[in-house]
Structures are given as C-alpha cells and as structure tokens.
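Lab notebook page, bench 4
Experiment: in silico fold of construct C2
Operator: M.H.
Input chain length: 347 residues
Purpose: comparison with the prior construct
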Amino acid sequence: MTAPPQPDRNCVAHHCIALCTRQDGAHLDICLAAITAQVQMSALKVSLVLVENSHHRTCDRIISQLKQRNIFHSLSYMTEPNPGIPAARNTSIDEALRLKADWIIFIDDDEFPETGWLQNLTAARRQFSADVYHGPVRLLYPPNQPKWLQLKSFDGGQHGSYLSTAATNNTMVSRRIFCTTTGLGLRFDNAYRFTGGSDVALFYMATKRGAKIRWVANAIVNERQDGERLKSEWLARRSQRIAANAVHRHMSERPIRSILKTATTVLRLSTEVIAYSVLYVSKRAVSLTHQPANITKHLDRQNEIRFRLQVRQAKISGYIRGIVRRPPQPYLVTKGHTPPGYQSPAP
C-alpha cells in the first residue's frame, strides 16, 4: 500500500482553514474529522484556525487531540467574546494573516466536505485565475422531507464561471482581499452581526473593487438539514432575512433605485399573495365539505400552497424592513445566548 503523502512544510502556498464555532460540539467533531482526513492525505501546507465565539473554551479536548497528531502546519485556537459571526471571522482572518497564510479557506462548523474537496478547491488556482474561489454546499434532507419544503442548493453555473459575490460556507480567499498593507484591507462588517449577510456584503465590496470570484463546481461540502431548518416557519423567516439584507445593502449604495425596484417586487409579490390566498381557501373548502379521493395528497398540496403564501408574505415584510433599515435579527439569540446589556430595537 502506498503511504499517504507527507505535508510539504516548505510548500510555496500556505493555506489556512478558518473555522468559527459556538457550542456546537457534535457538528464540529464531524467537520474537523473530515477536514483532517483530507489534509492528512494531501501534500499541501495547511494550517487551522478555530475561533470560538464565546467567553468560554469548549474545544480544548479536540484541539489537544489534533495537536498530538501533528497534521496541520500550525494550529490556533482562540475565543472571540464579542457576539456575532463577523467578529469571529475577523479574528480568524487576523490570525491567518499573522501566520502568513497565502489563502484563507472558510467552511461552516455544521458542514463536512466530500472526498476531494480540498484537492479540488486548491487545484482551481491552477485552472483559472481569481482572488476568491467558491464551491457548492449540498443540502442533505431526511428522506421524508417534502420536496417543496426543501431549499435548493446554490448553483454557480459551469465550472470556472464568474460570480458577483459569495458566502463563507465554502470559500478560498486570497490574502490580498484582507491585507491592509498590500491588498484591499476588507473585513466583515459588524453591523451585520445579528442579521447575517456580512459575507455576501464583503464579497460584493470585493468585486466592486476589482476582485474576481470563480465557481469551483467540484469542491463540494455537505450540510445536514435538521431541527428547526425542516420547518416552514424557519424557511419563511430565512426568506424574510435574505430579502431585508439585500435591500438594506443596496439602500446604502443607490437608495432611490433600490426603493423603486423594491416597490415593483413588493407589488408583484402582493399579487401572488392574493392568488395563493384564493387557491388556499378553495383547497381548504374542498377538504372541509368533501372527501377528496386521495386525502393525503390533497392535504400535502394544501400545506404546500400555505407555505408558498407564507414565504411571499415573509419576503414582503423583509423588503419593507430593509427599506426602513430595520432588518430582522435572527442571530441576536444564539444557542440560547443573548448578549449581556443588549436591548433589541423596537420592530
């Protein structure tokens, strides 16, 4: 059997995997196990930075085990007490730059990469030039989850396609995006700490300033959908948040154009709300006054209509909240934690 390649400590390109977490040990263990296996089988120079967004350290055990295995070129573990994912990400960036990383790889702690992820992501640099490389996140649902109650994974198109922005859920970023002396000096905006969307905003800013983002179709990570993410209420709130963040971001750039475009979208969605309301009432009336031949299928269709109605109402609410610059704050409470001394603004 051929021995796995040993990491090349003198490799020119230094990759640093930046991972932020908060009291999510079960998911984190799976994520780190998958990452470690791929690093161990590669000849890349890879460091790991783990930032816990908390006052408390809960990852000492797993970090100690990783250090004993001596797989990573460097391994850093620190806490970031300021609440919010932008602060944690910025801490990981500062540490990666201190380690003189050439490329920073972001992945979420509730994801796990498929075989070949690290190799394919880093190999993309030799295939096409860019400052940011973004790969797919495959959403894994239980087999009994209705198709209409499943999010579609983002598809960036053909391998190597240009993107206008990206997320940090599966992304490799050149140090020049963050370096303050020789690059753009960008950081994640703490204004998004409880609303989400700081990653999309940062990469939009990067492309506006000339950075290139390319799609790496074969660098895949998986994310299991469970708990609240299987419920229609959570999906509707997500739609509201995304709509609000998009409008909020564009309002700071082109307010008049953003208001006009949002008004048109709200009008279209309002028309769809009326149509789905009528359809739902009719389906509901049939189920109450008659016995459909296939009651299970009928009720499933009825629930689907109600969900699509719910999503459109949530989007309208989100667009309006974005216009008035009061986006929802779903991350204000994280794992049951409310930042001390923080008072939620009036809705």
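Observations: The first strand starts at residue 14 and ends at 21. Residues 1-11, 336-347 have pLDDT under 50 and may be disordered.
Next step: discuss at group meeting.
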